[in-house]
Amino acid sequence: MSFVYPKGVTKFVEFYHLCTCLVLPIFARINRTYFEGRNKRKVGVLSMRGDKIMAIIPAFNEEQAIGSTVETVKPYVDQVVVVDDGSTDRTRQIAKEHGATVISYLPNMGKGTALYMGAKYFMESDCEFLFTIDGDGQHRPEYIPEFMKKFEDPSVDMVVASRFGTVDWIENMPFIRKLSNLLSRFGLWILYNGFVVEDPQNGFRAYRRRAAKILNFKPKRKGRYGFEAETEILIDARIKGLKIETVHLPSIYFEDRVSKFSLFKDTWTIPGVMLKNFFKRKPWLYRRNFK
Asked: What is the pTM of this model?
């Protein structure tokens, strides 16, 4: 069954395709050449002044990828913590076999709950930097040094990865997922006083301890708390005046793996979360805090 665009968006879609096909590939190749050149260096001590780094990996039924994900993350951090979000396969056992600390619970409560459990564990540790990395192997931990470079500026509180403009974004990300991401980006900009986040649905992020301490990771509703949590964390960071930086990097897309992100359910849940927080938190009252 073919998809027919509603009236009124045809011109937008045509313009979007024009940009995608003609303009963005040029920037994508420039980005890839630049960042691949920067990453060809010997991996050394990433933390500053001996500060420790913890990686939190939310995972739900990721037995196929969790072992390799843990192994690729370990060289870049001091501690790897897998939050097993009610998996019914061998995710928990495999993560332990590969040396990760595992937090496990039942039933499956969604990525937002997993992030909250991981952040809570982080705050009880002596680590200074918190990274969140997906358990499906899509994120590339060899770019962690690029995140840490951003933290050399002591005013930076949080760093968010961006696939925008990379070859993977142009060639591999499904069109509907791109559109969902652009809508989220536009929603944050229009509702939160020009708040620009290039890739608001990217879960590869890093937080300084002082940021993780004041951000509200706690689930905002009873029951399942999914991908909308990542948007609410960004909104909370905006309201509280945190300084956010961006790292451009590619992601890995696997044809044989199904994303946990629902293009229909999550795509429409996230705008609802933006609107709800807009009326509840009144961002126009905090404009002087925005960085």
From this structure: 0.78
